[in-house]
Amino acid sequence: MTDSWSVAGRTFDSRLIVGTGKYKDFEQNAAALEASGAQIVTVAVRRVNVSDPNAPMLTDYIDPKKVTYLPNTAGCFTGDEAIRTLRLAREAGGWDLVKLEVLGEAKTLYPDMRETLKATEILAKEGFLPMVYCADDPIAAKQLEDAGAVAIMPLGAPIGSGLGIQNKVMIRLIVEGAKVPVLVDAGVGTASDAAVAMELGCDGVLMNTAIAEARDPIMMAGAMKLAVQSGRAAYLAGRMGRRQYADPSSPLAGLI
Amino acid sequence: MASSNLISIQLNGEKRSFEGPISLLELIESLALKPNKVAVERNMEIVPRSTLADVQCADGDALEIVHFVGGG
User: For residue A243, how far is the Cα from the chain centroid?
Assistant: First the structure.
């Protein structure tokens, strides 16, 4: 069964997007990416190390021609910083599909939605295709969509917390209301969390720490691949209704 | 007599001196960086890669040279 999804006209088979931070080394990062089956990776934009230009680079291990690099603005606390970062990213990479993330404070890394919305409008006007990290707020999600977001990426729990999907009701409402893809971004801790996100009808899941900080990141990457596929299949299959009381699976007739 | 023409540049937040005249492309290559793997901002303005050879650095320029690194 092919079950691809599209964002801004680009089609992908894998519904798992993985980050490239926090790994022990580039080899482990590349191996985890391979095991995850992901076709998109998030990357950061940072100053080059002018004192050591021959230091190994991410692009030596993960080929931007084979894997879609999604430049992210993690670490930006104002819309202006994020826009500046993405203008540089567009020049470095040559593509318009980007991930916008404007953080409100360091403690929670919760998004600043006022800045996020303003930046989304400006980026869309400049021809960017922003996938946008946001609060689990169905109204803000609609506003982002109207402002030009090509994907809505609500947090499942604080970035790097691994607490799992905390607000299933709101994630589902965002999915129901959105005309663009919805991907849970942040908060996944283990495979069942990824499955929950997919069972809610999300188009995909983005994660980094859950894989990078697992005892065996490569094995966890494989587990996440299966969990995303499994959660997606369960969503498509349509789960049974919930009952308040028991309902036996064996026939009541013919009991000895 | 060759006159020394040192220009001072704020490069990624650090003060550096270069022998001028020097284009942005020459400056990047002098740092052993690959121009096709970086993006350059000069005085808060993006410099398109295709024009790096045409832009001459000026004394007091603030340059940011960035690339992609691992991140979430």
Answer: 33
**Beta carbons of A216 and A224 less than 8 angstroms apart:** no
Tokens of A195: 């499955």
Distance CA B14, CA A166 (A): 43
ipTM of the complex in this document: 0.91
CA contacts within 13 A on the Cβ side of A58: 28
Specify whether A107 is catalytic: no
3-state helix, strand, coil in chain A (%, to 5): 40, 20, 45
- Contact A234/B at CB under 8 A: no
Closest to A149 in 3D by CA, of A198, A182, A114, A187:
A182
Rounded CA separation B3/A200 (Å): 70
pTM of the model: 0.91
| B64 touches A: beta carbon within 8 Å | yes
Digit-coded pLDDT (tens) for A124-174 = 999 999 999 999 999 999 999 999 999 999 999 999 999 999 999 999 999
Give me Rg for the CA atoms of chain B: 13
